[in-house]
Amino acid sequence: MRILLGIAMAAALPLAVEAGPRRVADVSKQLETLGAHPSGMVAAGGRVFFSGEDRVHGRELWMTDGTEAGTKLVNDLRVGQAGSHPAMLRAVGDRVFFFADDGEHGVELWSTDGEVTVIAGDQRPGGINFSPRQAVAAGGLLYFAEGPNPGPSDFMGYGLWRSDGTSDGTFPLNLRDPDTFLLPFGRADLLTELGGGLFFTNHGRELWQSPGTLAETVRLADLGDGAQIISMLAIENSLWFTLHRSDPSLFQVAGGRLFFAANDGIHGDELWRSDTGGTALVRDIRPGTGT
Question: What confidence tens digit (pLDDT) does each residue in 92-118 have?
Fold first, then answer.
């Protein structure tokens, strides 16, 4: 059973455009049927950055101010037609963070303001690649979650990282313990920004919050076995999510409210209610933190 606990409204970035569509620039300079295949577009500093491919540089990072003269290659990170393949572009203030392979360091995190492009340290020395699954900007930082790394580097997969664009400011919040092979708070998923902070789930069952330091990363709620947070949406000052639970008897609607069982890590498994006014504990029937 899936229960929708929130509804999001998407707002498009207002751009000044001339009447009718027009081509800004022919980036590829190739046959009209091929094109540059722009992708990953993100707005920062009054310009739009995107990954594009021309006949000379391969797929690299480009930017545009909306004019042909103002559409140009940002950096040729990997000289030659192979390209660095910028991916997962995210705007953090006036800078753009992205992952790319310069042919020397493997897939690493980079950032640019359109003029100067820097690497956020060689965090995976020896050409080992990052394999980012998700990335979100929050509070002037970039947070990203990894997927599995192929081969012997798989040990380093599924970490949660934060970065301010510098080498010292880029480090894992959630990295496997070399002795136990465990992640401090599990596999991070559904990264969402709200109020300048990061919210995420642990395997979809636990809800966590982080301001950017491991010490202050805390669990907000444990929804219990069988729960699965499928999606999360930040709306104004509230976080809403779609929840699937294997036992539908644990969720009931009455009087315009949703009643459900959950463990917030403080009261144990107790009865909660939720409506448009918020979510609250109905009563701590059996005091204590046990289930």
Answer: 999 999 999 998 888 999 999 999 999
